[in-house]
Design goal:
With 293 residues, the protein is an alpha+beta fold. The protein is built from ten helices and 13 strands. The protein binds fe (ii) ion (FE2).
């Protein structure tokens, strides 16, 4: 679905989000939640009053079968029926203009048949910059850093799934002086996020919260200190998407608890920057995300 040019682009070169669709359709949401709650397809189909074939088609296409008992299915897999219906009805987040944040760029790259978001932020005075995840391709990141004459000081990794760190190596070589931050247990101690740490990048202040579930090393970074009264920013990786969350088979309750406590507890104006799909806000997700009843 084309979102048009209504505010998805950073407007200054990098990070066109034009044409970005939701990461998950309603069928994806049902399948993810079913696997997270360890409900069999047969049980879910029965709760929804539909055949196994109809459930399977719904989960793969997002097209709801005739006669679906939405509330029955949603209750069985621990979703909000009302919110699930809204996703199925074509809900899209309110467009966000990243230019409100001085400065924030969304850099979306493609690989292996999917797209992934990286985020570059900087202090417009000092030009000190921080990168969040790398996506598949270093080139648009380098182009933005060069074009804006930035000093890349820090690289933060939300989790080490391949799509988020695919371009890390060339960036580490090119920006050898930049710090690296991750919750990966296998990382050398100097790169691991320290509890309570606050990293300053120019006027920006970056802290983190553990959002384990989709990934064992999942972490959400909070960025504060943007000028002009722009709200804080939460770079959530795959912990949460606009209208969905990152899959975590068998780990439904703990995953959702972490998101509730660490992300949905943030001020409602907080900008949520997910690893896939469009930007959203904490308040919007509290209202529409079907994983949270
Ligand atoms: Fe992931």
């Amino acid at each position: 679905m084309d979102l048009g040019s209504g505010g998805w682009t950073g407007g200054r070169g990098a990070g066109s989000l034009s044409g970005m669709t939701l990461e998950d359709h309603a069928g994806d949401v049902v399948r993810k939640s079913r696997l997270m709650m360890e409900v069999s397809a047969g049980e879910a189909a029965a709760a929804g009053g539909i055949t196994l074939e109809a459930l399977s088609a719904f989960e793969s296409t997002g097209e709801a079968p005739a006669g679906l008992n939405w509330d029955g299915l949603a209750a069985r897999v621990d979703l909000s029926g009302e919110k699930l219906r809204r996703i199925a009805g074509g809900w899209l987040p309110e467009p966000v203009d990243p230019a409100r944040w001085r400065e924030l760029r969304v850099i979306t790259t493609e690989g292996n048949g999917m797209t992934v978001n990286a985020f570059l932020v900087w202090d417009p005075q000092t030009r000190d910059a921080a990168l969040f995840d790398t996506g598949f391709d270093a080139e648009p990141i380098v182009r933005c850093i060069d074009g804006e004459r930035l000093n890349l000081r820090q690289i933060f990794i939300t989790h080490t799934h391949g799509d988020h760190v695919a371009a890390l190596e060339p960036l580490r070589v090119r920006y050898a002086g930049a710090g690296l931050h991750t919750n990966a247990k296998a990382a050398p101690a100097q790169h691991r996020n320290q509890p309570g740490a606050c990293i300053e990048v120019g006027s920006l202040r970056i802290t983190h919260r553990e959002t384990v579930g989709h990934a064992e090393d999942g972490v959400t970074y909070l960025i504060r200190g943007f000028g002009g009264g722009a709200p804080e920013v939460a770079v959530v990786g795959d912990a949460m998407f606009a209208g969905s969350i990152g899959g975590a088979p068998g780990k439904g309750p703990s995953t959702k608890q972490a998101i509730r406590e660490q992300i949905l507890s943030l001020p409602s104006a907080t900008l949520v920057c997910p690893g896939h799909g469009p930007l959203t806000t904490v308040g919007e997700q509290a209202r529409v995300n079907p994983f949270f009843v």
